Records
---
Amino acid sequence: MTPALPSLPVTLRDRRTSDLPILTRWLTDPAAEWRRWDAPYFPAAGTTRTMEAYADYLAAHGPDADEQVIDVDGVVVGMVNRSEEEPEGGGWWDLGILIYDPAYWGGGVGTRALGLWVQDTLDWTDAHVLTVTTWGGNERMLRLGKRLGFRECARVRQARLWEGVRYDSVQLDLLRGEWRGLPQP
Ligand SMILES: CC(C)(COP(=O)(O)OP(=O)(O)OC[C@H]1O[C@@H](n2cnc3c(N)ncnc32)[C@H](O)[C@@H]1OP(=O)(O)O)[C@@H](O)C(=O)NCCC(=O)NCCS
């Protein structure tokens, strides 16, 4: 069933110093539920080290236009990011999204936040095509992307091994000219 888009306001904004404690707590918790969904096939110890280094990076650097926090009615619930695929100026940007707290999953927050991020990326970059990359076990991410108009553009079959089961690696793409705008509530 298509979830109602959230009744609470979802916005993207620059990271603030006051966000660091909550971001650090969620990013560096090795038992956080999001770790079972965001590339869980990578060794956990390596992910923990990467996340600790990332939290340190956030503490040492100011906000970045290619990375925003997701704010739901004043509560920081996650982050979106983007990076340009090489070569610079080639028009291909890859987008990422992470909502830390499972209490905010499945209610339309991700659709709203990634939709805002697509719009921001089209407004502020020369992107011609956007991609998101996930795996076959992440049904929420796949459905969210397709609801926004992304289409499957690559599938490497059985490329990811997680708890003894093989899943496909899946990439979705969206052309600038295909963007229909944010889904209406
Ligand atoms: C993936 C993620 C961003 C999605 O955000 P969200 O707020 O949960 O997504 P939405 O509620 O907007 O949409 C989820 C879609 O999955 C469906 N869904 C919800 N719960 C589901 C479940 N348990 N199983 C399968 N599908 C489910 C919803 O019905 C909706 O699809 P629809 O619009 O076709 O009906 C979020 O769950 C998250 O951050 N998860 C952990 C980290 C992660 O996986 N990041 C992405 C890495 S590539």
Note: Residues 10-128 form a domain with the Aminopeptidase fold (CATH 3.40.630.30).
---
Amino acid sequence: MAIPGAALIKTLLSPSFWHFTLKKWEAEFHTNRGAASKLRGSKDVFFDPSVTFRSPENIVLGSRVWINEGCKIWASPNARIVVGDHTLLGPNIVVIANNHGTEYGKGFIRDQPMVEKDIKIGPDCWLGAGAVILAGVEIGEGAVVAAGAVVTKNVPPYSIVGGVPAKVISSRNSNPERLYSIST
Ligand SMILES: CC(C)(COP(=O)(O)OP(=O)(O)OC[C@H]1O[C@@H](n2cnc3c(N)ncnc32)[C@H](O)[C@@H]1OP(=O)(O)O)[C@@H](O)C(=O)NCCC(=O)NCCS
């Protein structure tokens, strides 16, 4: 017979429970407090204290988004980053919504206007360790980005992309007609 409260006691004795609870507390009350307070739409979001945000007023995180150590989520004054519900970001991912201007003969790169473009990452995606997501990219619902990929173009829903630049390496759904949307 199950002992009442046994599950609770097991949880309280679990090192991983305390590890993530303390990290969450640290994220909410210490590091990133200023930036985090400006993030939009965030509900039940976890991000490690080492995560940095730029232009946080232009970052929208869906519910249950999880962002691991060392990620940099850098929106821009004129470009938003939107991350859908339930999406997971592995460690050391860079999502960056701008480029320096690189026109030859138009002065120093650092003096040229920034080129800013929105980034949309769908719901239920998983971005592997060290991936880089560049300005203007849309990652479809349910897609997986392999570790180390540099994503320069849109990613189809439910595909798995990898490499530099990222290409489709496989698909999570062998019957694309049966795509569904978890957000509806
Ligand atoms: C993408 C991933 C999920 C595996 O996906 P998969 O569909 O099972 O892929 P497979 O292992 O069957 O490999 C399929 C092909 O993609 C290649 N591939 C796998 N991972 C790759 C990567 N990171 N970059 C480039 N190519 C990769 C494989 O070499 C293989 O190529 P081949 O067909 O020429 O042999 C996995 O490789 C990965 O990158 N995981 C991320 C781990 C991580 O970041 N964890 C953090 C947890 S939050």
Note: The chain has a mean pLDDT of 88.
---
Amino acid sequence: MKYVLLLLCSLFLFGTASAADEAKTQYATFCVACHGDAGKGDGVAGAALDPKPSDLSTTKMTDDEMAKIIKEGGTAVGRSAMMSPWGAVMDEAQLKAMVAYIRTLAAPK
Ligand code: HEC
């Protein structure tokens, strides 16, 4: 019985860790080119854009606003169309995890 509990606990821990890991991987896959490793808006593909990709480490957006621009893209909130919608590759849980990941970029180092 003890072992079953232990197993359940580790599954739970693994489950939460992997949502965060997945957000990190998705960020590295979809967002780094424009927003850069640390979210500063200094990715290689972002250099040529006007307006520049936002510095995600200093964003003033609320969680809901962030989820909306990520899901529906810049044009949905009156911003640049270069910020494309990612709703097709992220479900609600992944969007939430992405917003949480972006918050970690703002954490003081
Ligand atoms: C092709 C370049 C590009 C890619 C790739 C990209 N973005 Fe953006 N993003 C932008 C630009 C440009 C803006 C600024 C829009 C504006 O100010 O009009 C922006 C703005 C944002 C904002 C608004 C923040 C604020 O305070 O203004 C968030 C959040 C964001 N991006 C998240 C993401 C996430 C998460 C991904 C990956 C899933 C991503 N972006 C991929 C170009 C990009």
Note: Helices lie at 2-35, 63-72, 92-106.
---
Amino acid sequence: MSPRRRRPHLVFPDASELEEPLLDVQDLRTYFHTARGVVKANDGVSFTLNRGKTLGVVGESGSGKTVLTRSIMGLLPNIQLERSGSVRFAGHELTSLTAHQLRDVWGTQMAVIFQDPMTALNPVVRVDRQLTESLRIRLGLDRRAAHDTAIALLGSVGIPAPEQRMRNYPHELSGGMRQRVMIAIALACGPKLVLADEPTTGLDVTLQAQILDLLASLQRERSMGMILVTHDLGVVANRADDIAVMYAGRIVEQAPTKDLFSHTRMPYTEALLRSIPRLADPSHTRLRAIPGRPPDLASLPDGCPFAPRCPYAQDRCLTDDPPPRTAGAGHLFRCWFPVGSPEGEDALARNVAAGVPAALAFTGALAGAAISVTTVSVTATAVVTGSLAPDASLVPPAVPLVVPPVVPPVVSPGPAEGANGDATAGES
Ligand SMILES: Nc1ncnc2c1ncn2[C@@H]1O[C@H](COP(=O)(O)OP(=O)(O)OP(=O)(O)O)[C@@H](O)[C@H]1O
Ligand code: SF4
Ligand SMILES: [Mg+2]
């Protein structure tokens, strides 16, 4: 029998020697064939990311953010999956690599910080082994060196008394600590790219800020590229170089962060921006949630997928899918009636005048119109668009939202409690 031949390991250039972007994703499509039909979770996603830079990926639940990170990494099971397009990372086309070759990429070249550390960490394995395993397997360190490196890593992510924490199981740690352990595991083998998928879900705002600041400083130190996934534009506002806004499996607007905030073009992005709570708002200010629901990715409507919820929507939006357009360097969007353009302003004004619920909700005009909004929308949409069907989910609740009064926290002399209810000794 012939001896089994080992494939040569992939060779990756040092990130500083790269002459192309660290990550170049072009027309990535990730479809799931299900009993309900084809779920188009990513439908033609394209972007590039350079080393040391952060791309914020933002969108509502179900917009395809997690599938995007997994599709980039090649982490999705092949069953009922259809994937096409190109994912070039550090000079290699990842979509044509075998599972064996991808193992040379995971951990050492790119790593993921998962949405939920409690499910991503193995509950029956101590922190020690979860950290040292990849150091030993991927970097070939011996037991002693892996142990010492793991302790140093826990220290570098701000975990006090790391030797003691090494002996803990995940459930013995607070939410903040678990997230720090996840970050330490992700960074253990010195990846060039980190995909952080909602890395602060479930943590309170103070811990959120600490974890995100920690990630940012580790990224700077190591000149890593980072994709920071979140449903909250506020989280990436001052942490990302560029922002990609996802809706229904596509990037609907992408721009350098400052540009996205100052020259928003997409009505969906504008609606997301308006849903961010602001410190300057008076207390009891009602948050402006986006009315309606995102579309079912297994049966997308014709035209623009945001049309049923869009305050600017016109007839054309219901039939013609808007192609990507540019608005200055690095700024792309998909809309027929962009925010800030004369045609956008006209469209919004027409919809407000006609009483289209999405437009009234957006402009805050609903307070006076709420009582008769259903009637108004039926007649008005017929006049203005002829076909904009009133969507029951857009009709606001008749009863105003009751905001509970702010109760000052009770300060107890006991040990500090973490956001997740468990003691966070040393959590900073
Ligand atoms: N294995 C799968 N089979 C079928 N559909 C899937 C599969 N994985 C994800 N989806 C669908 O793909 C769509 C995008 O899911 P994804 O998890 O990427 O959303 P998300 O933007 O990360 O949402 P969230 O903010 O809630 O995490 C959803 O409609 C989801 O139901
Ligand atoms: S104006 Fe039309 S094309 Fe633009 S986001 Fe709204 S529905 Fe889509
Ligand atoms: Mg997700």
Note: The chain is about 30% helix and 15% strand.
